[in-house]
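Please, structure for the following, as tokens.
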Amino acid sequence: MKPTDSGVRRNPVPSLLKSLMNDHLDPGYEAAAKDREQGHSRPSRVGRQLWIGIGALLVGLVLSVAYRQAVERLPATEQVQTEILRKVHQVEDSAGALAGTRDGLTLRVDDSRDAALEGDTRGAALLDRLRGLEGDAAVEAVHGPGLTVTLADPPARPNLSDSSQRSVGGKAVVLDRDLQAVVNSLWASGAEAIAVGDVRIGPAVTIRQAGGAMLVDNQPVFSPYMVSAIGPPGPLQTGFVVSDAYLRMSGVAQLYGIGFSVKEADDLHLPGAPVRELRAAQPAETP
């Protein structure tokens, strides 16, 4: 039994193919013809240019007003900036004067203490003990031969977006852990006194970064960072060269272009650290 032709379902002709075969003109032409028949017309070239001119005039007016307001505010902004800088300089001068007064009073106190204690044997012994404690607290300025280790930020590279660079704010720099490692290695190598820049390293002194600035004992120091260590130059250099900090900084210098150098010095002068505020004390046990 064969199926009849009426039962066979044929594929319909696709509408797109049918429209291509039957409609030879794009529908847009027919719509444009109807618009012309109804009296509709596109804006003339003159009309378009007029609207463009009006728009450009409005944009120019807005920009002119914004520029005029910015120019009028500029003197006030510069005045505020000048006033802020003046206050900053005043505070810096005041802090410098107070620091000088403090140093002068400290010397007077030391002289009075020495004069009072040097008169007898017990006072002299107590004075020697105090001087030893002050040396341990790094409050006295010292000088002598030693070693200087210099770390410096590299010059800016053309491609600061290179993810292989260790950076702060997109710029490869010396990090606080680099200075910490160098200082700790110098102590371990036999250093008797250390300073970073003009800041003496003593008890409770920290080295850290804040906002891209290097702070040593909460005082800003800037590149190049010079770490000065007083001690026997030969043994000090020998111990430091074989330390992990030396190997670390040598590798960092090769990879990132950071400046790193080690030199012996015949006579280094290190300042004293500020005297810490005494918050608690107790009598020493009598031997």
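The helical segments are 15-22, 27-37, 45-117, 121-136, 176-188, 233-241, 244-256. The longest strand covers residues 259-270.
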